[in-house]
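Table S5 (text form). Sequence records supplied for joint modeling of the two-component complex.
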Amino acid sequence: MNNPLVQPDPGLYIWTIVTFLVLVALLAKFAWRPLLEALEARQESIRKSLDDARQAKQELERLHAESAQILATARAEAETIMSRTRADADRFREELKQKARAEAGGIVRNAEQQIQLETSRALQQIRQEAVDISVAIASKLLQRNVSKEDNERLIEETFAQLETTHRPS
Amino acid sequence: MFQPSPEAAQVHAEAGHAAAEGAAEGFNAGTVIIEHVSNSSLEHPLIHLPKVLGIDFSVTKHVFMLWLVAAILFFGITWVVRRYIRQERLIPRGFMGVLEIGVEFIRDSIVLPNVGQKWVKTWTPLLLTLFLFILGANLIGLIPIFDVLALLNHTVIHAPEDSFFAQMLHGGVTATGNFNVTAALATVTFFTIIVAGSRAHGFVKHWTNMIPSGMPWPLYILLIPIEVMGMFIRPFALTMRLAANMTGGHIAILAILSFVFIFNDMIGSLGATGIGLVFSVPLAVGISGLEVIVVLVQAYVFTLLTAVFVGMAIHAHH
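The corresponding structure-token record, covering 487 residues in total, follows.
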């Protein structure tokens, strides 16, 4: 046992165990426990962040879909409103046109009636005037006074004759 | 110790010569190599301490190296972790990034698959410390600090031989190359297995778990001794694997560098320098590169096997 390579050395043996155990205790207390806890906490926080990100993404997608749906509904509604309005406007215009046409027709008819009335009244007047003038002329010519009734009958006959030949259109 | 450069090789030789008693009789490779891989002798410790129950507790070079590694690890890691946690937003930067990769590797690739989700928090601190302690002790042996100091002592300082500084220059740096150290670490593993099994199943159940039940009784005459042997062989294998690997690499490097001095005695300094430049130094550099890998792998293997044994004690299904 003279070779120092294989010299048993109980002092060194015990020193090694003591040194190692003290180092384990110190490192465990001051380094490993805080470090492992920090690593675990970080792992947890990374996992949480990733979960949060995924959740946010899902939420965003949901909101996106929702907004798209709302937009589509709004668009469809606008379409309906537009078409209804257009139909309403068409109907209204048609109605207005109809009403205007009817009114115009009424006015025209009224005017025609008025004209006819005025015309016949004027004719009547003219006829009366003519009779009077004719009577006056005739009595002047004959120098005698034909009774008014005779004259009127005579003129009536003349007009009747005239009317059968020249009927006013 | 190893020397990655010709300067360091020179240093190493100087230190060797200064230490070797028979320096005048020429270069003795064996003495120098043993001096550089073994602990400093208990007759000349760094700090004398009284014997307790016949055990000499004097602080030798390897005890000192273990304390140095423990101090570097404790202050370094605590500093990095404290600085990281003080940040408002927990973004790993610089050393913390490296530490975090290491911690997560040990926790998720070594501890978790072996001991299971339930016991991860219990055993991760121990296994992390075990890995970093072994790795630190292995790595510090690759750095020729004391050889540089020896050269300075030899040329400039000339400290008295019995001073603390001069005593520090004796002995190997790699504490994990000493089987007393690795045996101590394996003892920790040994008791960790028992504690882990007892906490998972109760003290008595842990021992009965080790032997499969429901066998014909004559088999137990065979099985019980085998299991008891296995219980001790596992830590013994851990002890020997780590110590031998750490010592072996250093011996190889030292032996290759010793050629320079052997040839110096045989064919003169010019030829020896040629041998050193062409053969010894390139080969020593190559083996040193290999040593970096070995250092990592051995720390990993020790930790992994400890985790596997602890996991076996926890998940005993008999």
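Note: Chain A touches chain B at residues 3-17, 19-24, 26-28, 30-36, 38-39, 41-42, 45 (CB under 8 Å).
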